[in-house]
Every structure is written in C-alpha cells, then in structure tokens.
Amino acid sequence: MHTFHLSGYPRIGAKRELKFAVEAFWKGNTSEAELQQVAADIRRSNWATQQAAGADLLPVGDFSFYDHVLDIQVALGCIPARFGFDAATLTLPEYFQLARGNATQFAMEMTKWFDTNYHYIVPEWHPQTGFKANSKNLIAQIKEARALGHDIKPTLVGPITLLWLGKEKADGFNRLDLLPKLLPEYQKLLRELANEGVDWIQIDEPILAVDADQAWLDAFAPTYKELAITGTRIILGTYFAGVAEHVDLLKNLPVHGLHIDGVRAPEQLAVFAQAWPQNKVLSVGLIDGRNVWRANLSQVIDTLAPLSAKLGNNLWIAPSCSLLHSPQDLAVEEKLDGEIKSWMAFAAQKLVELGVVKQALEHGKDAVKDALAASDAAAADRATNKKIHNQAVQERVANLRPGADARKSPFAQRIEAQQAWMKLPLLPTTTIGSFPQTSEIRQARAAFKKGDLSAADYEAAMKKEIAYCVEEQEKLQIDVPVHGEAERNDMVEYFGEQLAGYCFSQFGWVQSYGSRCVKPPIIFGDVSRPNAMTVFWSTYAQSLTQRPMKGMLTGPVTMFKWSFVRDDIPLSQVCKQIALALNDEVLDLEKAGIKVIQIDEPAIREAMPLKKAQWDEYLAWACESFRLSSTDAEDSTQIHTHMCYSEFNDILPAIASMDADVITIETSRSDMELLTAFGDFKYPNDIGPGVYDIHSPRVPSEAEIEHLLRKAIEVVPVARLWVNPDCGLKTRGWPETIAQLQAMMNVTQKLRAELQS
C-alpha cells in the first residue's frame, strides 16, 4: 500500500472560526475555555476531512493559535528570556504576548516563511539561550486525535532549520553554535513522543532547499545520527525548491524517509528515482500545496508509476508542502465562473486528488477512470479557453521599446523638480497608506456588497471616513498625507477586482500571520486595466487638503505574488502585464493632479527563488516590471515604494535599480538593523525607515522612537531621510493610531528644531 500523508492543513477554520475566536479572546469577550473549544472543533473537522479522503497518516502539530515556529520554540523552551516567562508553564495570554508584545516588551520579530506570504515569529538567539523540552501540547493533540480513531504523524520544524530561521541577538557568536545545547532537548522531545506510541514523525528541514553555507549542511549527519536513536521513525521534509544537489547526503542520513517537492522542482524526480535506496521511503509531492489549480492527474500518475515500480510501498504520496498555504474548500464557492472553477482545487479537493492517485497506483487507472476523465477534460479546456488569452495585452508586452522602463531623468534631477513644488521640511513625515479599518467601514462594505446599501450611500460613507482620516492627519501635521484606503478590502484584492484576468473566491482565506487572514485574488488570464481604479478617491482626498496627497497602488510583483497566479505562462510575463496596467493608472493619477504615488512592493524579496543561481534572472524582470509601472511619469511626480518584513542586505543593488524616489522599509523590530545595510551601501535615493511597529497595539514611547530616529540619522544623510511607521495601519484602532502618530510627530519636530538650530 502506498501511504497517503500530509504535513499540514489549513488551521483557521472553514469560516475563519479561529480568527474570530482569538480576536474575541484578545478583547476579553470570550474565555480561554471557549477559545480552546473552537480550536478542538477545527482540529476534529480537519482530521475527519483528511480521513474521508483516504489519508493514512494525519498531521499533528500543524495546528497553532498563532504560528508553528513559535510553537516549536515553546516546545523546546527557547522563548526570549526578556519576557520573563517560563515556557514549561506558559499561559495562553503569555503565548500571545510573545507574538504581539506587551506593556514592557516589544513583540518578537516577524518575517516571511521562505518564499511564501506566511509570516513566522523569528527566534531570538543569544549565547545564553537555553533549551528545555516540553511536549505537553503536542501530546495533548496526539491523544485527542487518537481518541477520535486516527493514525497520526506529528510534524515538527527541524533543529537545524529552527536555528537557521532565527537571528543572533549578540555580537561574536554563531547561532549554529547552539546546536549542541539544542540537540539533547530535541532528542528528549522525540523520546517523549515515542513513549506515547508515536511511530512516524515528520521533521521539516526546508533549509535544505536554500543555498545554506556548508557549515549548516555539515551539521545534518551528526544531528540525525543523534535523533535516529530516539525510538521513532523519521521522515525528513523538504519543499519549495529542489534538493537534488544533496542526494548523497540525504540517502545516507539515518532517517527512514524523505519528502521532496515535485511541483516546485520536478527535475529532481529523475535524480531521486535513480539514486534513492529501495529500503527507504521516498515521499513525492506532485499535488501543488501552494496554488489553486487542479492537477493533471493522468500526468501525475504516469510520473509516479516508475517510482512505484521501483520502490513499491516505500513510495509515499503527499501534497508538495503543507496545505496551510491553500484555501480550504472549493465546494462552498457559489459565485465563481463555472468554467474557471472547474480548473481549480482547494485543500479539500487536493486531498481527493491524492486519494485518486493512490487508488490508481494500487489498482490501475481503470479503477478511477471517471475521475481521470474529469481531470483530463479540465486540463484540455483550460489550455484552450478564450477567457484566458487577450492578444492586445500579449502584443503590448512583446512590443515594448528598448528602455521603456526608464524614468525621463536621473534621481538627482527628479528630486529637485519634486522639492520645487512640494517644499517639504527636513525629516518629512508620511504614513505607509492604510488607516484603521473600523467596524463601520467593514459593515458599510459588507452591506454594499450584499445590495443592502446603495452605491450613493456607500460612496457617502467612504467619503466620510476619508474626510475624517485627512482631518486627523491635518491635526497631526503629517507632511504627505494619505486618504487611508477606507474603500479597500485588501491591498491586492482591491486592484484585482478592477483588472481583467482576475477572479475572486468568496471564502478562499489563507493565514498570513496570527489572526490575520487574506483572500488572495486568482489570476487566470491575461491582465489589463479596463478603467481607472483609484483616481476618484485620491482626487477627493486631495480636495480636502493643501498638502500633497499620496496616491496608493500595489506593485506588480506583489500583485502576482499575493495572488494565486496562473501557471501556464512564465511569471515574468504575468508581472509585466500587471506593470503596464498599473502604469496606465499612474499616468491617470498624474493627469488628475496626484503627483506623489506610492507603488508598494512588500513581496519583492519573498518572490525571489530560493536558489541564488536564479536570483539575477528574477531580479532583472522584477525590477524592470516595477520601473515599467511608473514609466513616462514626469520628473516632478514623486514615486514611492514600500517594502516590509524582509531582508534586503544581499540584493541592495537590485533594490536601488528600481529607482523609486522614496523607499520606506520596516526597521523598528530589528532596531534599525536593516537600515545599516542601506547606509553602508550608500543607497542613492530618499529612504524612510519605520520608527515604530504597527503590528503591536502598544503605543511606543517618544524615547523609543527618538532612539530609532537618531540611529537612522547616523547612517543616512538627513536630507534623504523620511519619518514613517513600519507599515500600514489598517489593523490598528483609531485611539492607538493617533497616539502612535502623535509620538512620532513630537519626536520629529524635536529633532527638526535641533538639526536646524
């Protein structure tokens, strides 16, 4: 029998039950017991769905109240000592404080999980960091699943990847040096699970898919020699890129199996088919865990058949990665176009696909001929359907003139033209774009979508919110205000709704971080802009102030990266199509008098291939696409961009090549660490480092902001320096937002006076 397993399933609930329960708990509106019951109900439902689809081993440890990387830190007793918490007795409120901060401690840093839009809580490593195994939460879930009659396989972040994911918080030591202290406790954790009768454990080491230094690779053999004696069978999990270059290392590790991603790196299948030992499990993921398109099941089965013949029952089948990154169930989607819907599969449908593959491998294609016929028909229809292709869009990209992506003049000339009319003071202030999405805004939007609120009344409601937002910024004396994006549901979804080539689900939510969920648009065809998208709202906001109003757009890389993107043409072509559509909007904004325009690209880093050999190609077309989005803009039009929660140190030449007049970046959680790299690089254009963390509800003290801003002044010429929060403010409430921004403005005015004296 071929084992059908998976490492993770969406944990937010089919209707985002976990999000609402967690947020109610944070507000004190529900008890911990009620929250725990919601969590148990979600786990029970998830396991039942997986078992019904034919899964043999169900994951445990994939559920989390906030983040699975934070969970393994708790399980290993290595949470930051600065909080003063004991991981062994950690309460749920304390757990949330690690991620969200409290009155005395800032939140732990957060960054992207490899090349996904999921954010994990970054471990903090010190030479004194200690470890102490604590398996009680895992064992509780194991018992819970077994009581329901399920065969389980816990999934844990591996010790080497865990160390690699964190950051050193002291000079003069390497976090890999913590491995000798970590390993005994990781062993203890596995032994405690083995004592509960756990047979298989999946230990995920996605560090193998990146270009890690040799020292990290050298750690695998001795590490897994130690873990092999803990009484469990280990399947090592890799995903998001190929690991064929490590085949000799992997086949000789003392583990019982390996999972590889056959969607992101199909070329590695041939290597492992030839080299993998027949007495070890090889798990192959050919069902895409990160996108919404149906698999071509005939092709999947044909690809796996030779491996099945060689490995027999030691061939396991799985999604390419955890289904955490997939929406939960396509069956509840009632408004999707029928043809487009027929090309899709969400998490529940991917499980069914795997069940079909398993049946075909064990009993032949005839046993699943109806399912294969449906899959074949969907693949054929998608390949030829006229809804996908727009010849005019394709020709526009193909016929771009040489140098079409360049601004008319270099930055030094542009900034003079911009300052001539903007007349900004030293340390100009702005925000990143969004302001609080209040319950009134959400209710009005929901009523409008349901038809319970007329278009005129909806417009009036949004204008009222925009006017309030502009008024508050006037009171604060923010130099370059924004309209607050009251009319926008999501920074990608809002634009996708107005672009041809996009479609939308009703319930296709995925977790971004904590209780934050996003519903990514779906790019199914060629992209164009039928009509102006933001001009109406931006010009209304500009009419309310004499200050230069900043128009807000989402950049081309982020537009595809934070969508479920079509996989039938190269990403570079999708990106350029979006860039040209955005350029139409930039030029219309400019004509309407909006001459400060921010084109956000927070996904520029996360969209990078995990293999460095592919970076140059990606960065070339990604940065070209950004430049295309503002091509032909006048010198006096100031183009901003924003990037958050990513590392840029090793790609700063590419970031500079984007040639935005102003870049704003997240720096507060890292204590301006990232800005130092920009200073050392001598970044040529204006830059706005974030001076406070918007993901925490706490109001920073003026001393904290002043500390960060003074550090910024030390590394960036003050004439090139802007002041702003880390990111958008949509998740915050108005009282804390005003207090946070007032603190920022007070410090800015103090330093302006000091610098000008």
From TrEMBL:
The protein's GO terms of the molecular function aspect are: 5-methyltetrahydropteroyltriglutamate-homocysteine S-methyltransferase activity; zinc ion binding
Amino acids binding 5-methyltetrahydropteroyltri-L-glutamate: 16-19, 112, 117, 516-517, 562, 606
Which of this chain's residues are annotated to bind Zn(2+) 1?
Answer: 642, 644, 666, 727
Pfam families the record matches: Meth_synt_1, Meth_synt_2
* Catalytic machinery residues: 695
InterPro entries, from UniProt? Answer: Cbl-indep_Met_Synth_N (IPR013215), Cobalamin-indep_Met_synthase (IPR006276), Met_Synth_C/arc (IPR002629), UROD/MetE-like_sf (IPR038071)
Q: Where does L-homocysteine bind?
A: 432-434, 485, 600
Q: Where does L-methionine bind?
A: 432-434, 485, 600
- The residues covered by the Cobalamin-independent methionine synthase MetE C-terminal/archaeal domain are 427-749
Q: Where are the transmembrane segments?
A: none
Keyword RNA-binding in record: no
Give the EC number.
Answer: 2.1.1.14
Cofactor mode of binding and number, as noted: Binds 2 Zn(2+) ions per subunit.
Name of the protein = 5-methyltetrahydropteroyltriglutamate--homocysteine methyltransferase
A GO biological process held by the record: methylation
The protein's required cofactor(s) are namely: Zn(2+)
* Cobalamin-independent methionine synthase MetE N-terminal domain span: 5-310
What is the catalytic activity of this protein? 5-methyltetrahydropteroyltri-L-glutamate + L-homocysteine = tetrahydropteroyltri-L-glutamate + L-methionine
Report the CDD domains cross-referenced here. Answer: CIMS_C_terminal_like, CIMS_N_terminal_like
Tell me, in a sentence or two, what this protein's role is: Catalyzes the transfer of a methyl group from 5-methyltetrahydrofolate to homocysteine resulting in methionine formation.
